[in-house]
Amino acid sequence: MDLERILRDTKSVAIVGVSNDPMRPSHGVWQYLRAASDYTLYLVNPTVSEIDGTPVYPSLADLPVVPDMVDVFRRREHLRSVLNDTIAIGAKTLWLQQGLWDDDIARDGAAAGLQVVMDRCLKVDHANLLSR
Questions:
Q1: C-alpha closest to that of 67 among 94, 34, 103, 32
Q2: How confident is the model at residue 76 (pLDDT cuts 50, 70, 90)?
Q3: CoA-binding domain: from which residue to which, for each copy (predicted)?
Q4: What is the per-residue burial (b if ≥16 Cβ within 10 Å, else e) of 25-59?
């Protein structure tokens, strides 16, 4: 899988499971991408309405656009529903953050036409591959 190509082709990212807690990894990834990337970012969490003035959507289906990438910060037991939602909205890439790996999700995502990246940090890969 060509991570650099995926990152270059991506124009918009939905961060699913973003937290308003600055100590959570999802918050740090969002802050980094907001500052260091040209991506249009959409935040998704049904328990938060806004973070630092940025609206947070309750679900992927509620987004005003179809994001290119869905970056996932959810526990493993929620991955199937996130995959189903990602397929339903028509995103191109499902990115499972560091620590998330599920071969069934990867297989089913690929079968549905998704690029699936697992167990990788979007912030780290963006910094290493695109911020030269």
A1: 94
A2: very high
A3: 6-100
A4: bbbebbebbeeebebebbbbbeebeebeeeebbee
Q: How many CB atoms sit inside 10 A of residue 7's CB?
A: 21
The structure's pTM equals: 0.96
- pLDDT tens string 1-33: 799 999 999 999 999 999 999 999 999 999 999
Span 29-44, average pLDDT: 97
- Cα 15 from Cα 11, distance rounded (Å): 13
φ/ψ of 42, rounded to 5, equals: -125, 130
What's the confidence (pLDDT) of residue 131?
76
Q: CB under 8 Å, gap of 24 or more: what pairs does 44-47 form? A: 44/14, 44/15, 44/16, 44/17, 44/18, 45/16, 45/17, 45/18, 45/19
Residue 86 Cα distances to 66, 116, 129, angstroms: 9, 11, 25
